[in-house]
Design a protein that fits this description.
Elements lengths: L9 H12 L3 H14 L4 E7 L5 E6 L6 H6 L27 H7 L2 E7 L6 E7 L2 E8 L4 E7 L6 H5 L4 H18 L4 E6 L2 E6 L4 H9 L7 E7 L4 E7 L11 E5 L2 E3 L2 H10 L12 E6 L5 E2 L10 E2 L2 H18 L50 H13 L10 H17 L16 E3 L3 E6 L2 E6 H17 L6 E11 L2 H9 L1 H6 L3 E5 L2 E8 L7 H14 L7 H14 L8 H13 L13 E5 H7 L2
Parallel strand pairs: 1-7, 11-13
Antiparallel strand pairs: 1-2, 2-6, 3-4, 3-6, 4-5, 7-8, 9-10, 10-13, 11-12, 14-15, 16-17, 17-18, 18-22, 19-21, 20-21
């Protein structure tokens, strides 16, 4: 009988490993940068073409490799960082599995040039599909240079799953920024299609963060520092007023390694509780130093998920340290425990004796007793007197008589008869067309009962339909601003604006970039001034974080504008304006749901209304 279990060929095993480690071009950039750092490089240059699909080049001035190491590094599980299993629990290096270069070379054309610091001649190795094609001596600078070309050339299915260039480069930029923030002592550069995106010289941590976020970010940073036996914590959080609608500026590092943690993220959010606007996210750059024996980084192929032995204690330290820093810089209210708890008495009254206040009660008071002052036909005054009698029961010496109670009920009946109705309806209800509840919900009578309409979602659908119909043939109507609106933008947001400038102009937006500031000169006419900033935030969120193709970007941007337009104040003060909105809504092809797929209309039948009151 033939054996069913067989060993996989090396090329198949390498491609399986590549699927775990190399998910997109950004994964290659991450692995090569980490190898350069482990090689003790202090200057690393990254050159990208076509978002890494055509070329990824990483050049470092590290220790380099000799002839035998130059070929051995492409083998699976070949590493200089781990010798025994115990080493896995005391890691101080970035990489350690020895799968990165094997995985990269299995799905790309790789050329490596490397030279040791003590040598004059280096090695050149060419690898295709995991097979070493050529190795020869070359003259090259000390350090190592990798050129990765035609990524996923032999795995077309994976290449087809790659997103548009701007999305893929955004992932590369994210990986580059994480490395740059973890190692401010390195000189790093990033170039894309000949344009230098970053040139980050060696700097202190605060300067490195400012270089990445922009020059205007220095006064936004609140320093955090705490040292305990469990963890050493340092870094910065952004002031609450600079919180963003997106989650881009959130970084955790442990022992100079970037990681994600929803648990620790919750601690940060809790520290900012009550200080942020709705749907805003705090920014933070937090660095933890923990004993390597108390963390496990070998739980995920990309090493972005880490287990902590004492995570509950670290959670508490994070929470208290951030709260303390926010209080120290007068950003959040704090209790001054060292302050004297006595009342703040004016100095001129300090010498006066303390006198207990006295209460005087008129024990002879009778609210039903007719006096010159209380003789009146006002039923409201008599009712008020009776209320006082009930409230002060026990203080009066005279008890209410039977005729007093009868008089009170007579007053109540008169009050009910004289009270105006809340809503006055004729027998013919056709005179009542609609009315508003809390300026957002419209209640309109229908043949079968009541129709409830969410006005904001209705406006979103109306604006979306109007813009979509006109955008096909003509640019959106734009209105110039008398005073341009200035908005701080990050380097990534600058790139996104430049890349999508043409389509944004067709949608009615006109803006100029000056260093770290975007000046908005014109906006779509459907937007009010107070919703412009939120519209820009929504646009950046759309083009930066949504996985959309070229054909969908117009749809997504129009949806962003419609959402911002729906946030403006709704003026529905007359039946005519309400009816106009309803008519516009029902002219839309889809009037039941908003473009965000949320319900606009809810009907309440007469049977349901009757059931609620039965």
């Amino acid at each position: 009988m033939e054996d069913l279990i067989k060993l996989l060929p090396d090329n198949v095993a390498n491609q399986i490993a590549a699927g775990e480690v190399i998910q997109r071009p950004a994964s290659v950039v991450k692995e090569l940068l980490e190898n350069a750092i482990d090689a003790s490089a202090d200057k690393i240059d990254v050159n990208i073409k076509d978002a890494g699909k055509t070329l990824i080049q990483v050049v470092d001035n590290g220790s380099g490799m000799g002839a035998s190491d130059a070929t051995l590094c492409f083998k699976r599980h070949a590493t200089s960082k781990v010798r025994t299993a115990d080493d896995l629990f005391s890691l101080t290096t970035k990489g350690f599995r020895g799968e990165a270069l094997a995985s990269i070379s299995a799905i790309a054309h790789v050329e490596m040039k490397t030279c040791m610091q003590s040598e004059n001649v280096g090695q050149s190795v060419l690898v295709e599909g995991g097979e070493i094609i050529k190795q020869e001596e070359v003259v090259c600078p000390a350090g190592t240079s990798f050129e990765v070309k035609n990524l996923f050339y032999n795995v077309p299915a994976r290449r087809n799953f790659l997103k548009k260039d701007s999305t893929e480069f955004k992932h590369i930029q994210d990986e580059f920024e994480r490395i740059a923030l973890a190692h401010p002592n390195l000189h790093l550069t990033l170039t894309h299609n000949g344009n230098q995106i970053y040139n980050l010289p060696q700097a202190i941590l605060r300067k490195r963060i400012v270089n990445i976020l922009g020059n205007n970010s220095n006064n936004r940073l609140v320093p955090i520092e705490e040292s305990t036996d469990i963890v050493e914590l340092k870094g910065f959080v952004l002031k609450p007023e600079h919180a963003r609608k997106t989650r881009g500026e959130q970084f955790f590092f442990v022992n100079d390694r970037y990681f994600r943690s929803s648990y620790f993220h919750h601690a940060v959010n809790k520290a900012f509780e009550g200080l942020l606007k709705n749907s805003s996210h705090p920014g933070y750059f937090l660095y933890l130093t923990v004993d390597t024996n108390k963390i496990d980084v070998n739980v995920h192929p990309t090493k972005t998920e880490i287990k902590f032995e004492e995570e509950k204690f670290i959670y508490s330290i994070l929470l208290s340290s951030i709260k303390q820093a926010l209080g120290m810089y007068n950003i959040a209210p704090t209790l001054e425990f060292e302050r004297e708890s006595s009342f703040d008495i004016p100095h001129s009254m300090h010498s006066q004796p303390t006198v207990e206040p006295t209460i005087h009660v008129d024990t002879a008071y009778n609210p039903f007793k007719t006096t010159a002052k209380t003789t009146s036909n006002s039923s409201g005054r008599n009712a008020e007197n009776f209320t006082k009698a009930i409230t002060n029961q026990g203080f009066g010496s005279e008890k209410a008589k039977a005729e007093d109670w009868q008089k009170f009920y007579t007053i109540e009946e008169e009050t009910e008869r004289n009270a105006e109705p809340i809503i006055e309806l004729d027998n013919d209800a056709s005179n009542v067309s609609s009315f508003i509840v809390k300026n957002n919900y419209i209640i309109s009578p229908s043949k079968s009962g009541l129709m409830l309409i969410n006005a904001k979602r209705a406006i979103e659908q109306i604006v979306y339909t109007d813009i979509s119909n006109s955008f096909i043939s003509n640019p959106i109507e734009s209105q110039a601003l008398l005073f341009p609106i200035e908005k701080e933008v990050s380097k990534n947001e600058r790139l996104l604006w430049e890349e999508n400038r043409k389509i944004l102009a067709q949608l009615g937006f006109n803006g100029t970039l000056e260093k770290d500031t975007l000046k908005i000169n014109a906006v779509p006419s459907v937007l009010q001034e107070e919703s412009i900033s939120s519209s820009i935030d929504e646009i950046f969120k759309t083009i930066a974080f949504q996985e959309i193709g070229k054909g969908d970007i117009a749809h997504s941007l129009i949806l962003s504008i419609a959402k911002a337009a729906s946030m403006k104040k709704i003026n529905l003060s007359t039946n005519e304006s309400i009816q106009g909105l309803i008519d516009q809504l029902f002219q839309c092809e889809n009037h039941a749901y908003s473009p965000s797929n949320k319900k606009i209309i809810e009907t309440l039948s007469l049977e349901e209304i009757h059931h609620k009151f039965s």
